[in-house]
Amino acid sequence: MPTGHPGADSAVPLTSQVQGLNLVRLANQLYGASPVFWGRYFSSVSVAGDVEYRHLIEDQLLRN
Question: If DSSP codes are grouped into helix, strand and coil, which group holds residue 5?
């Protein structure tokens, strides 16, 4: 059984919906606690798609 604080990682924005929940709420439901860290990807401004961290839509969720 894992010990310590839960963390998460995603290749899609935190605002993505899974089972009607954004990923932060889904992780909270799964772990029974909010993740203490969340991994997202940084590459370059020329990268298209959702893999790249989008600070304008994700900062507030991560801060909360």
Answer: coil
Spatial distance between the Cα atoms of 10 and 51, rounded to a whole number of angstroms: 8
* pTM, rounded to two decimals: 0.65
The CA distance from 8 to 28, in Å, is 10
The model's pLDDT over 25-45, given as tens digits with 9 standing for 90+, comes to 888 888 998 899 988 876 666
Q: How far is CA 5 from CA 15, 31, 35, 62, in A?
A: 22, 9, 7, 16
Q: How far is residue 30's CA from residue 57's CA, in Å, rounded to a whole number?
A: 23
- Measured CA to CA, the distance from residue 15 to residue 1 in angstroms comes to 29
